[in-house]
């Protein structure tokens, strides 16, 4: 959040949910605080790389797109994650594609033959005043004061990351600007009218661990085409012994469907098959520490895959844990998407 | 446990807390979180650093490691707090009935015991407190409440807990405290951390 003077973006509209997320607040789990942070780490890190930020600079995380931002100052931005189209509407352009200053609509310019624009795809040039550019995900581009940035609904997958050079500014809680939907820590969800300034989380040139800048990166998280099954790699245990070989096989053999009650805490999977505990192992398990990617099996036999806002401890047995890359993929599942588990135990 | 964590199993709550304190003394940079629970300590490493965390864990838990002698372990994380409680909870009479004692005896047992935070879970700052004498062991309520007010002091499943903020809850409510259990802006956000010794004092 920010004041009028320093703001770079004003939120005009959000889709179902838009949150600020960064690398999270690991290190507080013993106090009951989960690490939180970007649900799809690979896509989040790629967004920051595209705008030359530090790995953990705060970005926007959206669900099902639908985000409209008014641009108040020139900024370098990038959108990653689920494949989607970003549309930038520019109210007034000069022949070289740069914004006219001031950006108020030019009065009485009359019909024009349409501006020649230097960059981006022009969808429409309406009376010489409004140009519409489209940008795919995984590329950086510049927006100017007066532009409106619209993130459309992803063609597949669920979450997008909008990064700006410098990172989004917000007051940190326990060292992080992430919103934890389980405990409510961190900034509130984005709402129309919210103003955002940029922070100074740019990557220092030539610093140890710095990365070369890039204006395009390969998609970090592979999201399969619609109707193709998302395969999640699973490492067995620690509580697979409570389900025996039959339970483990049931988990791997079942065709799972992503449930609609899924969120940043966990993805609920559904099937006509249940992963049943062994008769001898139905007793209650004492609460134990949980991790992102843990596949917990409650008594109904329908697994829950924990994402970044998972509870720090839990009492249902964890039959297996996803690989880090598969946690990112699970964060892109939308309700109804088909899922299968693949055994990657060494 | 996955690519980035190791779950250490222990025989009971006491050895769990002992190991947690020993590990807490000197965690290496590869370790990001140490999470004690009822009979486990979860060691979470940075992605890609699990092997380093595992080596450290093996060294730290070796019989001859510094701190393996229980007498060499720092006492209770060095912290103790006393929490003032008004014993006005709606379930105080039910707890007394369940235990076959009077409400005053419940209060006397609660204030007379030394409680120790076994672990934190459920919500930021919600400590699972256990008393050595185990006299106030009652089950969860048959019907959970949709909203338990912040500061509610409650009993269930062998533990005492204090709700840091309003939340749903199935524990028996025996009293209320004005102590602030959780404040993210405080230097120590949680009033009670794993290993903290807690005493209760009756106020009106």
Short description:
The complex is a heterodimer of chains A (346) and B (204). Chain A has 346 residues and is mainly beta.
How many beta strands in the DSSP annotation of chain A? 21
Low-confidence stretches of chain B: 71-76
In total, the number of strands of chain B is 12
Number of helices of chain B: 4
Unreliable stretches of chain A (pLDDT < 50, length at least 5) are 100-121, 123-127
Spatial shape of chain A = elongated
Beginning-to-end CA distance, first to last residue of chain A = 46 Å
| CATH class identity of the largest domain in chain B | Mainly Beta
Question: Most extensive chain contact?
Answer: A-B, 32 and 33 residues
Summed over residues and divided by their number, the pLDDT of chain A gives a mean of 87
Tell me the major beta sheet of chain A: 7 strands, antiparallel
Question: What is the ordering of alpha helices and beta strands of chain A?
Answer: EEHEEEEEEEEEEEHEEEEEEEHE
Terminal Cα separation of chain B, in Å?
A: 48 Å
How many H/I helical runs of chain A?
3
Rg of chain A, please?
A: 22 Å
Order of helices and strands of chain B: EHEEHEHHEEEEEEEE
**Which percent band covers the strand fraction of chain B?**
25-35%
Features:
heterodimer, A: 346 residues, mainly beta, 2 domains, 7-stranded antiparallel sheet, 7-stranded mixed beta barrel, elongated, B: alpha+beta, Gyrase A, domain 2, Cyclophilin, 3-stranded antiparallel sheet, 4 helices
């Amino acid at each position: 959040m920010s004041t009028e003077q320093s703001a770079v973006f004003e939120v005009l509209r959000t889709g179902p949910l838009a949150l600020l997320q960064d690398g999270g607040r690991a290190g507080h789990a013993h106090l009951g605080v989960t690490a939180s942070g970007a649900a799809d780490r690979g896509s989040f890190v790629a967004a920051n790389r595209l705008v030359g930020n530090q790995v953990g600079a705060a970005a926007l995380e959206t669900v099902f797109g639908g985000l409209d931002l008014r641009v108040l100052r020139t900024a370098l931005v990038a959108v990653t994650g689920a494949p989607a189209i970003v549309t930038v509407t520019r109210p007034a352009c000069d022949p070289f594609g740069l914004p006219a200053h001031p950006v108020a609509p030019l009065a009485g310019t009359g019909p024009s033959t349409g501006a020649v624009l230097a960059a981006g795809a022009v969808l429409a040039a309406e009376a010489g005043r409004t140009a519409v550019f489209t940008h795919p995900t995984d590329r950086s581009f510049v927006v100017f004061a007066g532009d409106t940035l619209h993130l459309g609904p992803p063609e597949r997958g669920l979450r997008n990351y909008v990064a700006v050079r410098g990172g989004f500014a917000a007051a940190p809680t326990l060292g992080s600007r992430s919103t934890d939907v389980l405990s409510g820590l961190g900034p509130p969800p984005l709402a129309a009218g919210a103003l955002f300034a940029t922070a100074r989380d740019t990557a220092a040139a030539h610093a140890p661990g710095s990365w070369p800048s890039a204006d395009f990166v390969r998609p970090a998280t592979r999201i399969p085409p619609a109707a193709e099954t998302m395969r999640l790699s699973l490492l067995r245990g620690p509580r697979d012994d409570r389900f025996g070989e039959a339970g483990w096989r049931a988990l791997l053999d079942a065709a799972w469907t992503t449930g609609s009650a899924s969120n940043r805490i966990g993805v609920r999977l559904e099937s006509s098959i249940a992963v049943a505990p062994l008769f001898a192992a139905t007793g209650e398990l004492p609460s134990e520490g949980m991790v992102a990617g843990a596949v917990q099996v409650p008594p109904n036999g329908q697994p829950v895959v924990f994402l970044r806002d998972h509870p720090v401890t839990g009492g249902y047995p964890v039959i297996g844990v996803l690989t880090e890359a598969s946690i990112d993929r699970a964060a892109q599942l939308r309700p109804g998407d088909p899922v299968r588990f693949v055994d990657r135990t060494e | 446990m996955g690519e980035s964590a190791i779950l250490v199993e222990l025989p009971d709550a006491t050895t769990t807390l002992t190991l947690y304190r020993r590990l807490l003394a000197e965690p290496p940079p590869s370790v990001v979180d140490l999470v004690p629970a009822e009979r486990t300590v979860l060691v979470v490493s940075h992605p890609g650093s699990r092997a380093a965390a595992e080596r450290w864990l093996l060294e730290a838990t070796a019989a001859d490691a510094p701190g393996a002698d229980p007498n060499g372990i720092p006492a209770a994380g060095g912290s103790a707090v006393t929490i003032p409680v008004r014993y006005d909870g709606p379930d105080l009479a039910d707890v007394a009935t369940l235990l076959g004692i009077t409400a005053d005896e419940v209060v006397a047992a609660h204030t007379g015991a030394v409680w120790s935070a076994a672990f934190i879970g459920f919500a930021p700052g919600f400590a699972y407190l256990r008393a050595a004498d185990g006299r106030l062991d009652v089950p969860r309520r048959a019907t959970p409440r949709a909203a338990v007010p912040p500061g509610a002091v409650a009993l269930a499943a062998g533990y005492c807990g204090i709700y840091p903020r309003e939340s749903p809850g199935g524990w028996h409510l025996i009293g209320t405290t004005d102590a602030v259990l959780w404040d993210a802006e405080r230097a120590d956000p949680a009033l009670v951390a794993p290993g903290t010794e807690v005493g209760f004092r009756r106020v009106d």
